[in-house]
From TrEMBL:
InterPro entries: Ig-like_dom, Ig-like_dom_sf, Ig-like_fold, Ig_I-set, Ig_sub2. Keywords: Immunoglobulin domain. The keyword Aminoacyl-tRNA synthetase does not apply. SMART domains: IGc2. This is Ig-like domain-containing protein. One of its GO terms (biological process) is heart morphogenesis. Residues 65-151 form the Ig-like domain. Signal peptide: none annotated. It comes from the Eukaryota. Pfam families: I-set.
Amino acid sequence: MSIADGKTRYVSTFRIQLSSSQSKGANGQVSQPAHIPTITTAVRKPGETSNAVSSKHSHTSDLYPPLFTEPLEDCIVDEGNDIALKGTITGNQPISVSWLHNGEPVLFGKSSLVGGVVTLIVRECLPEDAGAYTCVAENTAGKTSSSAAVCER
């Protein structure tokens, strides 16, 4: 903020570098970037010219939103067989996982998240178990989802 000629002026500059590049580690899995972009805010103090600006650097902590590195896959099952949906998620823990079937919360089956692998098992499926399944993964940094179609023969 600066005061010149009786007028208050606010100056704020944000520099954000976004990168979609992902690197693969030795085990072949996609790893999170080593550095989160820095957001820089410049504030002009009273009496300073535009060349004399103090900077405050605010570094985002190493908090990564969930990301499906292996999404759910469509499948076809026979009536009476089990449905097994599986995906792989990266991101900071704790990650909460919920499942939707045709847009409604899943109230059946067994869901788990172990070592970044999320699964939903529906035992002895019935015709009404066919449809669109969505896994929603969320932590304090963000939210993502992956969907698959389950067809019954």
